[in-house]
Specification:
two-stranded parallel sheet; 10 helices; globular; 9 strands; binds NADP nicotinamide-adenine-dinucleotide phosphate
Length: 283
């Protein structure tokens, strides 16, 4: 299989979490390759706005709202896309995020929703698209993970578990199905600026992006590159991201020091204080 055949004219891509944040950049980059792109997320209004903006720039794009934490949502979404647009050649599992609250202050159901969105939904969507991809003998699944677990990013216990889970899932998926024409790649993101949860967190705390944050636009480019070159894993962050990941595996105790040096600890403490104040005000 030529990896590029899952991009460009005649192909169909499904991008999750495309109503805002980094997903809009991924949608723009994938649509820029010329194929049909289906955007999904929960917010129909925001999806329509992104769809109109991309269509005005010449993209072949449409949207289908879905809440991926609902039972059966992944299967229903894929079935609808396949019925309306034909087979899905590229799936980008980007929807995700973290409530940014302390683990013990959230109920277990709130914690499990984070697992559902960041791990269960990508697994369910991959499962739903795989049958058609195997039948056609081509397809690529790109999963969006995070450095959170590797660097012990503060207050992300369940999110980190999910994002590390996505890395293991992608490795095995790639090994099992690549010989049959369906590949899989994972993008491991460090903190991202200009759009998405990290930037919103900075705005909320009145703080500026650090030099350790990569621009959101670079994630869109990275998705296209990882598919074109059929790479297994790439780290998106300024500097030697893969090396930092490897070092963190050898010396996991370094995580808190790295977070302090990068300013993450102070930022997250400020965010938690803001969250607690909001919760106190609304109680
Ligand atoms: N921003 C960063 O610094 C950073 C760093 C590392 C990794 N990442 C990863 O990058 C990805 C994108 O993050 P982001 O920063 O762009 O987040 P974001 O701005 O919060 O966007 C999250 C997207 O996911 C969708 N989503 C949330 N809950 C959903 C649900 N239940 N069902 C369906 N869609 C849902 C949202 O759409 P609706 O609200 O419309 O549903 C939105 O489009 C995530 O996987 C995140 O973990 C981000």
């Amino acid at each position: 299989m030529s990896s590029s055949s899952v991009l460009g004219r005649g192909s169909t891509a499904l991008v999750t979490g495309a109503s805002r944040g980094i997903g809009t950049m991924i949608a723009r980059a994938v649509a820029g390759e010329g194929g049909h792109v289906v955007l999904t997320g929960r917010s129909a209004t925001e999806l329509r706005a992104v769809t109109s903006e991309l269509a005005a720039a010449g993209a072949d794009v449409c949207s289908l709202p879905a809440d991926l934490t609902q039972p059966g949502a992944a299967g229903n979404l894929v079935e609808t896309v396949e019925r309306q647009c034909g087979g899905i050649d590229l799936l980008v599992n980007n929807a995700g995020g973290d409530p940014l609250r302390e683990f013990h202050t959230m109920t277990i159901d709130e914690n499990l929703r984070t697992l559902q969105l960041n791990l269960v939904a990508p697994v369910a969507l991959s499962h739903a698209v795989l049958g058609g991809m195997l039948q056609r003998g081509r397809g690529h699944i790109v999963n969006i993970s995070a450095m959170a677990g590797r660097v012990s990013f503060p207050y992300t216990e369940v999110y980190a578990a999910a994002k590390d889970g996505v890395i293991g899932f992608t490795r095995v998926l790639r090994a099992d199905y690549r010989p049959r024409g369906v590949s899989a790649s994972v993008l491991i993101l460090g903190a991202i600026r200009d759009a998405g949860q990290g930037q919103r967190m900075l705005d909320e705390a009145g703080m500026r992006a650090s030099r350790f944050m990569a621009p959101a636009e670079s994630v869109g480019r990275a998705v296209v590159n990882v598919v074109r070159k059929d790479r297994a894993e790439i780290v998106v962050m300024p500097g030697p991201g893969r090396l930092l990941r490897a070092v963190m595996d050898y010396f996991p105790g370094l995580g808190p020091a790295v977070n302090r040096a990068a300013g993450a600890t102070v930022t997250m403490q400020k965010i938690i204080e803001l969250r607690d104040a909001e919760a106190g005000a609304s109680a």
